[in-house]
């Protein structure tokens, strides 16, 4: 005669099995001699599901965010169902991040994850919540991937840091990398933002390039020029590069050229610039003007000035003009004038020859 009988009973078929939460079935050993239950075994029931929530109890899945670099991240994982209550843990790959959890009265097991400061290295990291209550079944897991807004790593003016000439266009380039989304670049002289620039982006949107077309003036000399890169999603956190401008403004060359053209008593540099400013504001701004404009400005008469007594113009022959211009050209070359000024004198000499 058998001493024990092994019975498998559905938990729903016996009254006391209701005390075993989430029980599916029991295995009971009954003594055939005494009729007593000597032992029983009940099945582990795995958790039904795990869900990840944000601080406002919104359920999250897939790629979440973007969150800001440097900000705090709070996530909650809840495991529903299962017996005995599962262990709920947070993982990053194979690295355990948090194994502290609590079981609520309704049987839900909760684990709150806090990452105090999100780093650049956390971009697209996968966070996984595991719930497991035995070693015989596979853990129930849910994962999310973290997207981030990243600050630019650098801003750098790549153009040669050289002396600029007043009135001559200078093309300057600035690049920035590391921002997500792509950085926007702005140019500044002191506290004044410049607007004559254009932007382009690399195919992966990781690098921004800005080209500035600058027309320096004498007022820009010793002013600080800067290039600022900023993530539009992270305002107030720019990075910048810059230098103090060295602008050469060619007063001596302008005075000498006008004195040659006027064929009058020499003017000082100050008198020449004052005269130029009154005669044509474009010269005072150090803008590029053509040969004809310079000659027209230098020889213009103020028709509105009734107090000026007309003076008979001095007749100058072609040979006298050529001799004067040859002398001016030789002197300009000895003084190492700019190439465009020497070309202007040569053009005037050639015109006199005609």
From TrEMBL:
UniProt keyword Cell membrane present: no
Keyword check for Cell wall biogenesis/degradation? no
Q: How does it sit in the membrane?
A: Single-pass membrane protein
The record's listing under PROSITE patterns reads: IG_LIKE (PS50835)
Q: Which UniProt keywords apply?
A: Disulfide bond, Membrane
Every Ig-like domain range: 47-145, 152-246
Q: Which SUPFAM superfamilies match?
A: Immunoglobulin
Where it sits in the cell: the answer is: Membrane
Task: Identify the GO cellular component terms for this protein.
Answer: membrane
Name of this protein:
Ig-like domain-containing protein
> Which organism is this entry from?
Araneus ventricosus
